[in-house]
Amino acid sequence: METATEQRTLFTKEEIGVTTPEDSKPQHRPEKTLPADRAQDKPAPTVGKPFVDNPRMACRHVNVFYGDKHAIRDVSLDIGRNQVIAMIGPSGCGKSTFIRCLNRMNDTIEGCRVTGEILLDGQNIYARQVDVVPLRAQVGMVFQKPNPFPKSIYDNVAYGPKIHGLARNRAELDEIVETSLQRAGLWDEVKDRLSHAGTSLSGGQQQRLCIARTIAVGPEVILMDEPCSALDPIATGKIEELIDELRRQYSIAIVTHSMQQAARVSQRTAYFHLGDLIEVGRTEQIFTTPRHKLTQDYITGRFG
Amino acid sequence: MNNGKPKTIEIVQRSLVRRYRAERRFRRMGLGAIVLSLVFLGFLFASIVGNGYTALFQTQVQLDISFDPETFATGELANADYPRLIKEALYKAFPQVTARGERRALTGLVSSGAAFQLRQMVLADRSLIGTRRSIWLPADDDVDMLVKGHLSRQAGRLSEAQLAWIGQLQSQGKLAKHFNWTLFTAGDSREPELAGILGAVVGSFYTLLVTLALSFPLGVATAVYLEEFAPRSRWTDLIEVNINNLAAVPSIVFGLLGLAVFLGAFGMPRSAPVVGGMVLTLMTLPTIIIASRAALQAVPPSIRDAALGVGASKMQMILHHVLPLALPGMLTGTIIGMARALGETAPLLMIGMVAFIVDIPGGFTDPATVLPVQIYLWADSPERAFVERTAAATLALLAFLIVMNGLAVVLRRRFERRW
Amino acid sequence: MLKKTLQAFAAVILIWTGAAAPAMADAARDNLKIVGSSTVYPFATVVAEQFGKTSGFKTPVIESTGSGGGFKLFCAGVGVEHPDITNASRRIKPSEMDTCAANGVNEIVEVKIGYDGIVLANSRKAPPLKLTRRDMYLALARQVPDPSGAQKVVPNPYKTWKEINPALPASKIEVLGPPPTSGTRDAFVELVMEHGAESYDWIKALKKSDEKQFKAISQTVREDGAYIEAGENDNLIVQKLEANPKAAGIFGFSFLDQNVDKIQGAVVENVSPTFEAIADGSYPVSRPLFFYIKKAHVGRIPGIAEYVKEFSSEKAWGPDGYLADKGLIPMPDAERKQMAADVARMKTLAKDALK
After folding, report:
1. Distances B79 to B123, B359, C32, C59 between C-alpha atoms, Å
2. Is C110 an interface residue toward B (CB < 8 Å)?
3. DSSP conformational letter for C298
4. Lowest-confidence range among A266-270, B239-243, C18-22?
5. Where are the domains of chain A?
6. CB contact residues (below 8 A), chain B span 358-387, against chain C
7. How far is B418 from chain A, CA to nearest CA, in Å?
8. Which of C143, B370, B319 is nearest to A159 (CA)?
9. Is C80 helix (H, G, I), strand (E, B) or coil?
10. For chain A, the helix, strand and coil percentages under 3-state DSSP, each to the nearest 5
């Protein structure tokens, strides 16, 4: 079914400074390892198990175009309930583009077109009648660079609940803020300075604040786009523990450059290559016995 | 190593000297440029302050005025013969002066505005009638210039007799310089000793208030629409080019536009601050729009992503996050535009605001002029005493500009947030 | 914060529109609007100020638009949006009366207020100049009669005053003066240059036979640097003269009067530009000054008659009046009296009178 959307787009990529890896040319395009069928310009078939039972989100034949550029080629993948799926792959492989499709953040990029079907609890999120505002409340997102609002810690967390009207009074709002910060593992560190600026926190704390902000809206799915790439190892460790913790309640899709991180936090791993989904499987399986040669080359460090 | 070739480090070191020399030269050039501009600025300030500070004082003459009840016998206090009170006081002070021509010369020492000062005193306090008071009254501008040393004794503007009387008054301590309150409390006048900048300041205030009230919301709304909502098309490109062009249009053109549209088509009053404000709005809008768009562009996309990521609508994203961050830049642009508007005379010429206006405007439609126009009019006046008043008015204008720019800095500090 | 700011702005706009709307509907005007000549401006403003202080009426608003600009505004129509009075440093032209009539301004009262002398002055640091109008014409025209005596014009060859007249100093000809938009410049061209040119009989003859040629010879000011256009600001010319004693400048008498300690007027045809000499007509370079009243506004705009009365009173335009203090040269007694009487009757100007 073609539920393609030529959304009325509002920004050019340059204008909002989007620096998704797809935007720039891949720095080390592995020409030699091009699969044979790539040359005939057909999407590579996915090996492994892209589908799970009772998925939270189901993507079917998703294609993404930036103008003429075909950034995601016929990807079908499920996001399971209460588990973490990691997207890995070399720069420019389309993993960030893919994850941004899941809450329609790509709508803001001019010239971006998505075809195919992405179902959230059985409803196609690209259907005409779907409003992105509630969708993004259901599918939250944590970005690469910690981006707290230039407001107080409290206001950062309270903003989402406020605009969605989740709290009827101040006490309820206080409670949401506290539970969200607790779940993000930040409460003990900031409970005495909730009125301080969110930007005054350290990088790791800021990222956890952003996670708290996302949780506060009560989403079902949390998308994380390389959430630790700007953090030091200790802060990274904390976030990884947190992700493991959050898995009990939410479905999480994480894009990461670090294979160790994927191995540590995820239950399933999807390997992307030049817009194709090459292989999906249980994480241990992908890292111990990859079935596709490209996956093997990537995880053994041949390229990437 | 090859002996014929110098080592890399040697080549580097040789070029290093040259590089450092170039750097030093560049630094010195930059420093020189700053010093030069500071010298010019200092020169400008020194000349204006040097010319203008004397205007802060006004020579006054102390006279024993007896408010003779006979003068007020007709009962009409407003139309009583106040100049006579001054003449009588002068004749009493100089009993030796009797000839008609000489008496004329004597009364010429006191400003023609002195009578109005007495009139106001009596109208404010009737009990003065019948009393005798020692009152400081403004001296004529020629006397003022002489006392301040701007007029030589040989000039011929004052006769030998007048010079002698001035000397006599000075030795009695009845001729002295006092702070010139008139300069700040009066409207324009053709008598330098009675002229003040208040009318122009109030006119500038009304005009700029209209400009601000119109141009800021319009400019910000335009910038937000163009930057955040307008689809990219040939039309928006055209609008953008036109806005940039408007920013470079000579200001007199806006005056012509104002004359044709606001006065001609809408039938609005001439010389009114409301029209001046509207004309200056046209002139200021491009500046504000361009600055506001730049400020909006400077808001990091991560903040937009963050807002959209928690499910904010586009309007909420703009109102709650983008606008507050862009506001300092917008305010800076607005204040720069307003400062430009404050110093503008050319567009106001066309709509009749370059005029001699004595009464202090009481509203947006009263005839009014503005500070730079007042400076221009005074600079064009033949009376010598207007030279220092021109400089003093310029100082006042500069003071307003400094206050406005200071306000810009304060607002920036107040609203600026880091991310 | 932002919300408050926006609310504040909304409030300001509301207040503004609230204040402006009724005023715009208010058609009547309670102050006089006067436009016109920048030469008359310093005199009219003094009268306006006196009038405002003593009469109980509002002080008239006076714009300095130049004589031509003044007539344009004045003749645009009858009604509160049009000025009541225009000042002029020359008489109204028949063409301007036609414009007026076409716009419904039929009845105009002409008031002559006095005279203004135009002076050529230099710094007191230099010796005074003694000139004739012919000298000035030869010094400043673009084309002058051939010095050899032939009846043709050549591009102005004179570089120093001495070359024109051996009695004059050997200094370079350098005259600062107003630009062509100025009424002072018009008057200077008419009173000095044309008169100087007419002192040559064959040029005078041209006036009848070839007026175009006559104008080109008599009215064109040289552009090779000897005549420097110094802008409308006469104060600036005075300052420049003070800094450069070799230069001379052209401006109205009131500026000479106010700066007698710095500059001196050139003696023209043996007459010094003094108050008395201009008043009795012996100083040759002087022109009358006027203002014109829109009779249709009299009685409709409050204060016109009273303002005119103030202007035509002896204490204003008389020989000892306050306008004389400002440098206006009064008319002779009889002319003044006649004028004051005519004005009191609001005698309208007939177009034939302009011939």
Report:
1. 11, 20, 22, 17
2. no
3. B
4. C18-22
5. 13-24+40-147+218-299
6. 358-359, 363-365, 367, 377, 379-384, 387
7. 6
8. B319
9. coil
10. 35, 25, 40
Angstroms from A46 CA to nearest CA on chain B: 30
Residue pair C292/C82 in contact by the 8 Å Cβ criterion? no
Q: C212-239, pLDDT tens digit by residue?
A: 888 888 888 998 888 988 876 777 888 8
Structural domains present in chain C: 31-115+287-354 (3.40.190.10), 117-286 (3.40.190.10)
Q: What is the DSSP letter of C296?
A: G
CATH superfamily assigned to domain B198-415: MetI-like (1.10.3720.10)
Q: Is the ipTM of this complex over 0.85?
A: no
Fold of A13-24+40-147+218-299: Rossmann fold (3.40.50)
Contacts of B331 in chain C (CB under 8 A): none
Q: Is A81 left (phi over 0), alpha (psi -120 to 50) or beta?
A: beta
Q: Per the CB < 8 Å rule, is B356 touching C260?
A: no
Which tokens sit at B109?
């020492």
Nearest to B356 by CA among C58, C309, C91: C58
Helices B100-107 and B82-93 sit at what angle, rounded to 10 degrees?
110
Q: Exposed e or buried b for every residue in A221-254, given b needs 16+ CB within 10 A?
A: bbbbbbbbebbeeebbebbbebbeebbeebbbbb
CB A239 within 8 Å of CB A143: no
- A230 contacts A146 by C-beta, under 8 angstroms: yes
DSSP letter string, B48-87? HHHHHGGGGEEEEEEEEEE--GGGGTTS-GGGS-HHHHHH
Single-letter code of the amino acid located at C121: A
Query: Would you report the helix, strand and coil content of chain C in percent, each value rounded to 5?
Result: 45, 20, 35
Q: Which two tokens stand for residue A298?
A: 């990537």
- pLDDT the model gives residue B398: 92
Q: Are A78 and A58 in contact (CB under 8 A)?
A: yes
A139 closest CA partner among A173, A85, A99? A99
Distance, CA of B192 to chain centre: 18
**Quick check: C348 and C108 in contact, CB under 8 A?**
yes
- Structure confidence at residue A121 as a pLDDT band (50, 70, 90): confident
CA–CA gap between residue B342 and residue B280 (Å, rounded):
9
d(CA B207, CA B272): 8
- What does the alpha-carbon distance between residue A186 and residue A203 come to, in Å, rounded to a whole number? 12
Is B231's CB within 8 Å of A8's CB?
yes
The chains found to touch C (3+ Cβ pairs under 8 angstroms) are: B
Sign of the CA dihedral with A98 first, then A103, A106, and A107 last: positive
Chains C and A touch (3+ CB pairs under 8 A): no
Domain ranges of chain B: 57-179, 198-415
- Judged against a pLDDT cut of 70, whether residue B178 lies above it is answered with yes
Q: Where are the alpha helices (DSSP H) in chain A?
A: 13-16, 36-39, 95-101, 132-138, 153-164, 170-183, 187-190, 203-216, 233-246, 259-265, 283-288, 293-299
Q: Write phi, then psi, for A269 (nearest 5 degrees).
A: -135, 140
The model's pLDDT over B63-87, given as tens digits with 9 standing for 90+, comes to 998 888 887 877 677 777 888 888 8
- pLDDT tens for B106-147 read 988 998 888 888 888 888 888 888 888 899 999 998 899 999
User: Is B302 close to A145, i.e. CB distance below 8 A?
Assistant: yes
Query: b/e map of B302-324 (b: 16 or more CB within 10 Å)?
Result: bbbbbbbbbbbbbebbbbbbbbb
